[in-house]
Design brief:
Layout: E1 3-7, H1 12-27, E2 31-36, H2 38-47, E3 50-53, H3 56-59, H4 71-100, E4 104-108, H5 112-121, E5 125-129, H6 152-184, H7 193-197, E6 203-205, E7 222-224, H8 238-241, E8 247-250, H9 261-270, E9 276-280, E10 295-298, H10 303-306, E11 310-315, H11 319-327, E12 332-334, H12 341-350, E13 354-356, H13 364-375, H14 378-391, H15 393-405
Parallel strand pairs: 1-2, 1-4, 2-3, 4-5, 5-6, 6-7, 8-9, 8-11, 9-10, 11-12, 12-13
């Protein structure tokens, strides 16, 4: 059996999807060690994994993309943060490799320094991606703005014009920083962000078609395995057993982005509806909200306990929460605030698995109408759920790791 070292960025939204894969590898007899954010260490140890914290200097560089005024600005802020963390990741992963002596390494695609260190190490390595990947393709629109797929010559002309405007600016700001880091490790520079997205010999992509746009040109190194989900243990929820109406689950980001407006608007929109609203604010403050009689607000509720009874999920467009709902066959009303959420929301709409409402147009009346429309799209959500199951999830991901890293 092999020794496998895994490394994540400081984001629970990246750790939790990776956990089922690591647990499956461990179940198969592999020795798995993990470096992750401090807030995840005890949780992963409780699940049975050998976990330790990443360098605290990495966690100190906080993601501030929610301050951006546009999707392109959000991407630019994100990539600046990833580049700033990268030098610390190099020394951190090198130290972990020296300590653990792994046979193979799995790194988060947002850890650009760790990816470079894994490549320079020379042993078998893979990356994983839990969000829509910004890989250009003639079959997909330019990443970042949440554009619909192109239709006909005019659509292709739009893509050709927009792609360099959005990603070109990001490349000009990012690639020189990454090039300097890679040069310090004896590695060639990337000529494009596409090269960064395809640098790993194996990329475990935690989604599947038709939620992800079907493409004819997926790289051979990509394994589309569908979403994977892990939740920490939780106490029983007796109040949930007492709910006798269809549930609407409302989620906000686990990494702060000032999206609490979604909760207040959902309460106002659905107060008169024959539903029960369960809202979560994992990175916000639940105090200060007027909670109607047909609602409950918590900092954390395990979504897996709620979704089997849900008629709809109103999400902030986060990939984890959205795919978790769809994996249960629950239609989604996605309200994107930033980051990759514009892309996630558009995919919900294009897949016929729910509706999309930009945060800039968020209001009680509009949200109520979008939730009602989403509830009618359960067949589309159930079709996505079937495709996810067919993709294989953690089992398929572990199979890919065994073929690529420990064969």
């Amino acid at each position: 059996m092999a020794r496998i070292l895994a490394y994540t960025s400081p984001a629970l939204g990246h750790l939790f999807p990776l956990a089922p894969i690591l647990l499956e590898l461990q179940r198969r007899g592999h020795a798995v060690t993990l470096r992750t954010l401090t807030a995840g260490v005890d949780r992963m140890r409780g699940a049975g994994l050998d976990a330790a914290a990443i360098d605290d200097r990495i966690e100190a560089i906080a993601l501030d993309d929610y301050r951006a005024k546009s999707p392109a600005g959000s991407i630019a802020r994100s990539t600046t943060v990833f580049a700033a963390r990268a030098a610390h990741e190099v020394t951190d992963l090198r130290a972990a490799i020296e300590a653990e002596r792994p046979d193979g390494v799995i790194v988060d695609i947002n850890t650009w320094g760790a990816m470079a260190a894994a490549e320079a190490w020379g042993g078998p390595w893979a990356a994983f991606c839990p969000y829509p990947i910004p890989l250009s393709s003639p079959d997909a629109p330019p990443f970042g703005l949440g554009l619909p797929p192109a239709r006909g010559p005019l659509g292709r002309l739009r893509d050709a014009a927009v792609r360099p405007l959005v990603m070109g600016a990001v490349e000009r700001a990012t690639l020189p920083k990454v090039a300097a880091l890679r040069a310090s490790l004896g590695l060639a520079p990337f000529r494009s962000l596409d090269e960064l997205q395809t640098a790993a010999p194996l990329l475990i992509y935690l989604t599947a078609e038709p939620f992800e746009y079907p493409r004819r040109d997926w790289p051979a190194s990509y394994a589309l395995v569908g979403p994977t989900h892990w939740e920490p243990p939780h106490d029983p929820l007796p109040w949930l057993d007492a709910v006798d109406r269809p549930i609407v689950l409302v989620t906000t980001s686990s990494e702060f982005q000032d999206d609490g407006e979604l909760v207040g608007t959902a309460f106002a929109a659905l107060e008169g509806e024959d539903v029960f609203v369960v809202a979560t604010l994992p990175s916000g403050d639940p105090d200060g909200y007027a909670v109607p009689a047909n609602a409950r607000l918590e900092r954390f509720v395990p979504h897996g306990a709620v979704l089997p009874r849900a008629a709809c999920a109103v999400t902030h467009g986060g990939m984890g929460a959205t795919q978790k709902a769809l994996a249960h066959g629950v239609p989604v009303c996605a309200v994107p605030f930033g980051r990759d959420q514009f892309e996630v929301a558009r995919r919900v709409e294009v897949a016929g698995a729910g509706t999309r409402l930009p945060a800039s147009r968020l209001g009680a009346e509009r949200l109520r109408a979008k939730v009602r429309a989403a509830m009618a799209r359960r067949p589309g959500a159930e079709a996505v759920a079937r495709a996810y199951r067919a993709a294989g999830g953690a089992v398929a991901a572990a199979d890919a790791v065994e073929r690529g890293l420990v064969a």
